[in-house]
Design a protein that fits this description.
Helix content is about 65%, strand content about 0%. It is mostly helical.
Length: about 230
């Protein structure tokens, strides 16, 4: 067999292997890697950053220890929930993880944009002289991200229990916070904070699960409830 024929057979085999690849063979949306990669799984970094920022803001939303001003979350929103999570999303692209790349980068952008609203130098909040108008704008901002979250939920609804619970709680939290902003009802905002805390706990659990999955001899395994492979 000529060298050209041998080369053709190799290329043909590679194409067949690529065509026969089943993109649903991953165990979960974050660690799913359709392309062979030496990159470490950025999922835990993104999840822990998301969870910690969400947890802090949600504690403020339920007025923990009498806190009513959430501005302390700005630093977390920029660097943890924002920048770190956005970078995690960028690292998911070369790993071939469409869901992880899209979700992490989107929510990273969400947190950075949310922090920008409350930075005085940005002038965003100062542009509103009417508090009701500002609350209505915040409500629209949050309900848009609720819609985006529901779209992400559709991608994992029949695949992974943990992520389905995570995104469901997040969607409800965002919806309640939007309604709370529109109606100025503190009880609704606190309810949104409660669902936000639940969201953070689930995100922490998935992050630990991903972290342990990367260890060959982990002390235990944390199942995520894979519904479809």
């Amino acid at each position: 067999m000529s060298s050209n024929g041998h080369k053709h057979d190799i290329e043909k085999g590679a194409v067949m292997q690529q065509e026969n690849y089943n993109p649903t063979s991953g165990t979960d949306p974050v660690s799913y890697t359709p392309y062979p990669s030496k990159l470490a799984n950025p999922g835990p970094a993104g999840l822990f950053s998301f969870a910690s920022t969400t947890f802090m803001l949600s504690l403020f939303n339920v007025n923990t220890r009498g806190i009513h001003t959430p501005n302390l979350v700005i630093g977390m929103a920029i660097f943890a929930g924002g920048l770190t999570q956005f970078i995690a999303g960028m690292w998911e692209f070369p790993r071939g993880n469409t869901f992880g790349a899209t979700a992490f980068s989107s929510y990273g952008a969400f947190w950075m944009s949310y922090a920008t609203i409350f930075i005085p130098a940005s002038g965003v909040q100062a542009a509103y002289t009417d508090q009701t108008e500002f609350n209505n704008a915040i409500g629209i901002y949050l309900i848009i991200w609720c819609i985006v979250t529901i779209m992400f939920l559709l991608a994992v609804l029949r695949r992974n229990v943990a992520f389905s619970c995570l995104l469901s709680c997040l969607a409800i939290a965002l919806m309640l916070l939007a309604v709370g902003a529109w109606t100025a009802m503190a009880s609704v905002t606190r309810a949104g904070g409660g669902f936000g805390i639940a969201t953070a706990m689930i995100a922490y659990y998935i992050g630990v699960s991903e972290l342990l999955a990367a260890e060959k001899r982990a002390v235990f395994r944390a199942p995520q409830g894979v519904l479809h492979e």
